[in-house]
Amino acid sequence: MIPGSELILNPDGSVYHLHLLPGQIANDIITVGDPERVAEISRRFDRVELRVAAREFVTHTGELDGRRLTVISTGIGTDNVDIVLNELDALVNIDLERREVKAELTVLNLLRLGTSGALQPDLPLGSILLSAGALSADGLMPYYGVDGVGDDFGTALSEFVTANGLRLPVDPLYFSPVLPDFLNHPAGKQLPRGVTLTAAGFYAPQGRSLRLPTRLHPELLDVLRRFDYRGLRITNIEMETAGIYGLANALGHRSASLSALLANRGAGTFSKNPAAAVDALIDLGLLLLTDRDGSTDAA
Ligand SMILES: O=P(O)(O)O[C@H]1O[C@H](CO)[C@@H](O)[C@H]1O
Ligand SMILES: O=c1cc[nH]c(=O)[nH]1
Fold it and tell me: Name one GO molecular function term (predicted).
């Protein structure tokens, strides 16, 4: 039995932070950072059956083209992802009344639709990228005592950075997701793929400096840009994907992260029309989730 201090329920029986009850989420779940993006997505649903808002966690559940979907905001950062993934999992895989893990576990399909900064100059502003893997520079996953999948990538990166006379601020863990089947849709297969670096913050942790200097070496982003391990490059930086991939893997869920690239860190540019880029990202995400007949089996 999971004690009351670990599995915390509100007086109405809902999970502590998300304020959701079992049955209120679909098995296909879109996660976004920005709470306002939730309504931007659900207004495209044919109907919305549930709207719940608690802190940065806004959840809408509804239906599009006969498919039940949930969209939920994580807010910014993997500290919030920790809460969202654990409480979503509890909603389907823990009997909240008996406080026991269910004998039969449910696998969720998690699709992050986020924004990100490109590291590679050949990735145009406004384009969309699928994270084939995520490098954690944020600090969440070491608390879980689960290994990164394909840690070779992290080791090879550390060696490359050291060979270039620099150090990484944290030991990188690498997570490669089990992708939901709907990524086999032709629109998913043709997406550029790369490794996403998940940072602990937006400014210094991503090498940005306004009034305060960053302690990331000025050449580090360039070294990361040049790293290539078995054809995989580090393509972009954001703040949630490694937490989602790491926890989804550990909990047995499937996950994919799509990013609209709003900044180009090499060129020092930012999208002139971020709203259009996010719109295109939402269009693609909803196509993948609903046009399952367009998917094929070959991964
Ligand atoms: O667009 P979202 O999903 O919020 O994602 C990105 O944008 C935020 C920073 O502006 C971070 O959360 C980052 O990961
Ligand atoms: O550069 C960027 C752009 C969006 N989100 C980030 O975290 N970084």
Answer: uridine phosphorylase activity
